[in-house]
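Propose amino acids for all 102 sites.
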């Protein structure tokens, strides 16, 4: 699948979490890639995609905007949003994802 046709879309706030999540998706039989450059999303062919925003250490407003931009890039239309927390939402990026305020 390519572009907006991904079966699974994940927005992560750091590379470690992005890769960990990607591995879990791949274990379920879906070809999954982790991308660190939003510009590469359109050329990505896979069932699932994980976009690392590196927003964990950003100030709240910058983290929120990074997550918003990732969402616009990955799912320009309507999409069902789910949140995975593996630690308390103590970072701005995690809070934006978890609360849907992105």
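Proposal:
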């Amino acid at each position: 699948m390519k572009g907006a046709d991904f079966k699974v879309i994940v927005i992560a706030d750091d590379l470690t979490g992005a890769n960990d999540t990607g591995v879990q998706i791949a274990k379920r039989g879906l070809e999954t890639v982790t991308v660190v450059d939003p510009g590469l999303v359109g050329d990505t062919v896979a069932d699932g995609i994980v976009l690392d925003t590196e927003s964990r250490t950003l100030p709240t407003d910058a983290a929120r905007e990074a997550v918003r931009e990732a969402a616009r890039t990955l799912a320009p239309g309507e999409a069902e949003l789910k949140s995975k927390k593996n630690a308390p939402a103590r970072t701005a990026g995690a809070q934006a994802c978890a609360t849907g305020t992105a």
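Residues 60-74 form the longest helix (15 residues). The beta strands are 8-12, 32-35, 48-52.
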